[in-house]
Structures are given as C-alpha cells and as structure tokens.
Amino acid sequence: MPEQLSDPTLQPKVIQELRLVENVVKAADSTAGFGVSAGQRMHVHVFGAWGFAILTSPTLRSAVQTAIDYLKISFVLTEMHLDEDGGIARVWFDLSDLPAPVRAVYAERHCTVTMTFIRELFAKPLESGFAIETRIKDPDYAQELGKLLNLDVAPGCAQYALVFSANMLDRPLPKSDPVTLKYCLEQCDALAQQASLDEKPWSQKVRDFILEDITTEHRIECVADELSLGERTLRRRLTDEGTNFRELYTDIRLSIAHELLDSTGINVETASWRVGYAEPASFVRAFSRRYGMTPGAVRKQARP
After folding, report:
1. Residues 177, 279 share a domain
2. Structural domain of residue 290, as residue ranges?
C-alpha cells in the first residue's frame, strides 16, 4: 500500500524487499550503483549488538569472523565467507539463494557495506589496494561500478567478493574493547537463538503458501519464485528437512481432500477440484495409493 512507504514503524519482510528490488531492476536501464547507494547509508553502529561486536573486536580477522558467525541476526541476505590465498584476503558472498535479477544489486550493497565497516573499524582513511570481483561479465558494467567506488572492478569472476591485502587481517583495531565485546557477543547469542526459534522450516513455508490457494495447481518453480529462492535451492532445503516438493504437495492435497470427503460428503469430482487436481482420475489414483481405499469409499462412510 502507498501509505506504508511513509510509515516509520513498518518492518518489511525479506520477500517484500526482494520484490521491490526486482521491480526496480526490471524498470531500470542500468542497475550499476543501486547497491552502492544503499550500502553507503549503512554504518556499523546501526546494526545493534552485531555491529558493536564487530566494532570492538581485537583484529579485522576477528571482526569478520564475528560478522560471519552471527550473520542471521544482520540485514545480510546471503552467506558470507573469508578466504586467504597468496597474501590476498577475499570476503565473498554466496548469492545463489537470491533471484538472479537482484544478485548484482545485493553484491554491490554487501561489498560496499563491508568496505564501510573496515574504514570505520580502523577509524581512518585506508590505503589503496581494495578491489571488487563480480560475476557480471559486462566490462561496461565493471567500469561504471569502478568509477562509483573509485577502485578496480574485475568482471566475469567466479564469485562476488571484496578483495584486499591479507596483511590487514591481523592488525589491531583501535576501538577494541574486551568487556564490551563479551557483552555484545552474549547479546548476539541470545538474538541468534531467538531467531532460530522464530524461523519456520522451509517445508512449513511451502505448506503455508500452497494452503493460501489450494485450488490452484502449483509448480515448484513458481513456489520457489514466490519464496524468493531458486528452484534448486528450494529442492535442497526441503531435502535437508527430509522431504521433497512432490511428497509435501501430495500430502497437503490428499489430507484436505480426505477431510472434505469424510466430513462433508461432497462428491469426488468436487473434492478433486477443491485441492487443485485438473483430472479427477489422477486424483482418484493418488488418493487410493495413499489411503488404500477410493475417494468414493471414504465419501460413503462420511460422518452425518
């Protein structure tokens, strides 16, 4: 709703944010810099206990590891990793769980936020030597992004990453404070534990979405898109929870159909339509395999 845009108390859901960014990307001729503009507005002190735990860490390495350990309580929507190779440190982001059209925007944002954090951790301007790696192959995009950030951008890389000298990782940070760090890490632990309790399993998210419109026949690619995931990612997450989309979807449809037949006595064709089957014959076969009796038999035994 338009009035929500001016509501200072509104806390948009992740899926709403992703939809907004997708719409902006679709409407724009060029998206280079969208993520940079957003990232430059984010400073370490606005991230609460997570931000202050990073700020009061003893070294940059410790700060990055703290950021990674408690990523789920931040605004970062991707997995974050730290690698070292040949004197080069690379903070890279796995954006494979995000819809393809928005990945470059979030890569820009996360790299920009990371650079901003590093500058604020050291409390002084930093020497040159930073670079961005992007999976975008377009050299014009890389050149435009480089001008905005005033650093080198390498196109066509294996990952989205911020690259800098590994020598920086073990430099002491001027705002290190063991007492404050200990307190902030305790707060981060509590927040992370609460976040785990509040987060629904992906199988439940799929169930909730399907139940919103059970009469429609759903396909996994469409459900994944509505949940702002790639199809392969959704399949993997359901597998991790010991199920799969076909099994989950069939269980939902047939359970509801059985309840309708048993409690209302509606005819088989209507029950089939109510749970999204285009062909009653397919419904009958699936129902009979599941319950060992036909939908018609259940209907005849329906409670008065």
Report:
1. no
2. 202-300
